[in-house]
């Protein structure tokens, strides 16, 4: 490492709040949020007078912190971004005091961000350290700007999350994100490992043998990557190696939905827990991560404000009730987004958690996107994750694609399956699994969905693509 790199590392380490987490802290992620909230409270006389500086963080105090930061971010956005200067002109920012008050603040949509992303920049482009362009799952291209402080903040939250799942000195994180170019996850992940003194390795090769060799050579103890690719490595890599012998302590799944069927297979093959992560490029890599209870994802509420709304009315739904996830940045400098409609279908749960965290709210794993739902049969709403759940639960399946078509008045489901084995027995097993999905069985009972079909292809004939759309709807009108 050069002297200049050493100086930069020293500077970042000094700024990271993750380094203030006491050794042996049972809940590093929540402690990191408490440290950030206390720093904000200490730095604002009015807030300090209102709620004091708590030694132990409570949900009530953290709510006050969040609403204060939201008002500060609104004022910052109105002053510095062309978009919110127009949208929030004349708005009484100080009137937003409670979670319910948020409903009076206008939404921001992905379309608005895509139409003019630079009107969301709160600093000049010369102050933006990194620009990331992503089409995400929706296919709409959006550009996000991160300042140095934004990147440090992301490294900070990732560092605390790595501590929270049990990483420590002597551990090494293997990062596998093949073919991902829009947002380089290794930038933050490897940076967090360096800051903490942990080992790391990266490999973007789609060749399974190269991935396995990298894991062995690096002495990896944790893995993070796309679940579809980790699944592929698992199914194909297990033909030549005992994956449990590699000593992987945990696998972190991110950037794609993780089905429970796939999770079960991965945990059995590797002999460790598989933890889910949810995030968006618009808000950085790590927005929420599971603990080992695997009962919801702990959210980065120090930097983000989470809401769940009825997608039709835009009003809040109660805790535990499903709706559209809406996010607001609380500390962003580059791209600022307020009440951003993610399109993800999810729910939020109030604390505590069985893991011991006391004030951090949890996100139920999003089950799909509003723009990726398909109506079939009796008009039942289906999501790709519903088919992932049954297809990837079968150990023979490496990958699949589904085409929804029409035969007269019936919807048709034609699966193309890349599998380790084929034949009538496997086909029957998979067809029965698909027919076991409630929405499918309901449509078949009413004779509105035809018997699903399975077409098998050889392994390697279906080119792997990150975040590939598994479902193609070839019907003229799915309604």
What does this structure look like?
With 479 residues, this protein is an alpha/beta fold. It folds into two domains: 1-367, 3-Layer(aba) Sandwich (Rossmann fold), CATH 3.40.50.12780; 374-473, 2-Layer Sandwich (GMP Synthetase, Chain A, domain 3), CATH 3.30.300.30. The protein has 14 helices and 19 strands. The chain has helices spanning 3-15, 28-42, 45-51, 59-80, 82-87, 110-115, 148-164, 185-196, 208-218, 227-237, 260-270, 384-391, 424-435, 438-445; strands spanning 130-134, 142-146, 172-176, 199-202, 222-225, 250-253, 273-280, 284-290, 297-299, 304-309, 323-329, 340-349, 362-369, 374-376, 380-382, 397-407, 410-419, 453-457, 471-473. A hairpin with a 2-residue loop joins strand 16 and strand 17 (410-419). The protein is globular, with a radius of gyration of 23 Å. The N and C termini lie far apart (59 Å).
């Amino acid at each position: 490492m050069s002297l200049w790199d050493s100086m930069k590392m020293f500077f970042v380490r000094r700024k990271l709040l993750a380094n203030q987490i006491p050794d042996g802290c049972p809940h590093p992620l929540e402690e990191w949020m408490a440290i950030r909230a206390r720093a904000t409270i200490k730095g604002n006389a009015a807030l300090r007078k209102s709620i004091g500086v708590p030694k132990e963080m409570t949900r009530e105090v953290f709510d006050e912190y969040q609403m204060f930061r939201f008002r500060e971010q609104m004022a910052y956005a109105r002053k510095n971004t062309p978009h919110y200067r127009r949208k929030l002109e004349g708005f009484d920012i100080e009137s937003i005091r409670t979670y319910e008050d948020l409903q009076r603040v206008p939404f921001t949509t992905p379309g608005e961000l895509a139409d003019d992303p630079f009107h969301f920049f709160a600093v000049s482009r010369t102050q933006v350290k990194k620009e990331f362009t992503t089409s995400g799952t929706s296919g709409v291209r959006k550009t996000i700007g991160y300042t140095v402080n934004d990147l440090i903040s992301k490294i900070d939250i990732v560092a605390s999350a790595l501590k929270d799942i049990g990483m420590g000195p002597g551990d090494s994180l293997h990062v596998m994100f093949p073919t991902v170019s829009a947002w380089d996850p290794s930038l933050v992940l490897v940076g967090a490992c360096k800051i903490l003194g942990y080992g790391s390795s990266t490999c973007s090769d789609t060749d399974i043998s190269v991935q396995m060799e990298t894991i062995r050579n690096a002495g990896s103890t944790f893995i993070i990557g796309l679940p579809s690719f980790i699944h592929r490595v698992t199914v194909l890599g297990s033909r030549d190696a005992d994956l449990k012998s590699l000593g992987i302590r945990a696998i972190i799944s991110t950037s794609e939905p993780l089905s429970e069927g796939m999770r079960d297979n991965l945990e059995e093959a590797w002999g460790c827990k598989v933890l889910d992560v949810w995030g968006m490029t618009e808000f950085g890599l790590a927005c929420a991560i599971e603990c080992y209870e695997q009962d919801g994802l702990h959210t980065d509420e120090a930097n983000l404000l989470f809401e769940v709304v009825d997608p039709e009315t835009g009003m809040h739904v109660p805790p535990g009730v499903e709706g559209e996830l809406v996010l607001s940045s609380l500390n962003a400098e580059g791209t600022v987004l307020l009440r951003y409609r993610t399109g993800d279908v999810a729910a939020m749960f109030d604390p505590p958690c069985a893991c011991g965290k006391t004030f951090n709210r949890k996100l139920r794993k999003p089950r799909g996107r509003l723009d990726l739902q398909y109506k079939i049969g009796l008009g039942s709403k289906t999501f790709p994750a519903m088919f992932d759940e049954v297809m990837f639960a079968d150990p023979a399946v490496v990958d699949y694609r589904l085409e929804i078509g029409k035969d007269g008045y019936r919807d048709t489901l034609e699966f193309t399956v890349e599998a380790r084995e084929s034949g009538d027995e496997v086909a029957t097993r998979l067809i029965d699994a698909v027919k076991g999905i409630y929405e499918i069985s309901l449509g078949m009972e009413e004779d509105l969905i035809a018997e699903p079909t399975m077409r098998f292809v050889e392994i390697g004939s279906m080119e792997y693509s990150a975040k590939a759309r598994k479902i193609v709807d070839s019907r003229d009108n799915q309604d």
